Amino acid sequence: MEEQASTARTALKYGILTSAAIMIFTTILNVSGQSQNKWLALFAYVIMIVGIVLAMKEFRESNKGYMTYGEGLGLGSLVSGILGFLASMFAMVYIRFIDPTIMTQTLNKARADMEAQGMDDAQIDKYMEISQKFSSPGFMFAAGVFGYLFMGFIFSLIIAAIIRREKAVFE
Questions:
Q1: 159 and 56 Cβ atoms separated by less than 8 Å
Q2: What distances in angstroms separate CA 30 from CA 24, 98, 100, 112, 152, one per listed residue?
Q3: Global pTM?
Q4: Is the predicted pLDDT of residue 153 greater than 60, yes or no?
Q5: 92 alpha-carbon distance from chain centroid
Q6: Alpha carbon of 140 to those of 44, 56, 85, 86: distances in Å?
Q7: 141 with 89: CB under 8 angstroms?
């Protein structure tokens, strides 16, 4: 009896590998002082897309060359959920223990951006107060997981449509 391809096993493998790649990339950005560079930060999405594509291709090949749209969408969403959980855990550990100044740097950059836009001090102070409320570890963790899951779902909708290969009806 042949072993059936498992979306969970494939998702776990690629969720861990992709999160490791994003953790390394994020650490490089933080250490090099480029963590506020939005264009470089978008490269994390490229890493995520590559992880989802590789997971779907491996699943399809281990499933005799076939993968339905639903299997691909589910697999990509699982990879994204695992990635989101692990990457958010890493971010919390990084912010809490490795470089606690990163949040201060982020808030200072936001303040400088608002001053450059010509906002008055009352508006800036109100925004900074709201930002600090949303900077709690629990909220940031949940937002990170949800953000990765949401973006991964969107990417998976597209990638699964491209990579799917359904069995013929009478095969």
A1: yes
A2: 10, 11, 12, 19, 23
A3: 0.89
A4: yes
A5: 14
A6: 17, 29, 11, 13
A7: yes
Q: Which phi and psi (to 5°) does residue 161 adopt?
A: -65, -30
CA-to-CA separations, 105 to 13, 35, 110, in angstroms, rounded: 34, 9, 9
SS3 call for 101: coil
Q: Which tokens is 68 given?
A: 């339905």
For the chain, the domains span 7-97+137-163
CA–CA gap between residue 85 and residue 51 (Å, rounded): 15
Please give the C-alpha separations between residue 97 and each of 31, 61, 113, in angstroms, as whole numbers: 14, 41, 27
pLDDT digit string, tens, across residues 80-102: 999 999 999 999 999 989 988 88
- Write the secondary structure of 118-148 as one string of H (helix), E (strand) and C (coil): CCCHHHHHHHHHHHHHCCCHHHHHHHHHHHH
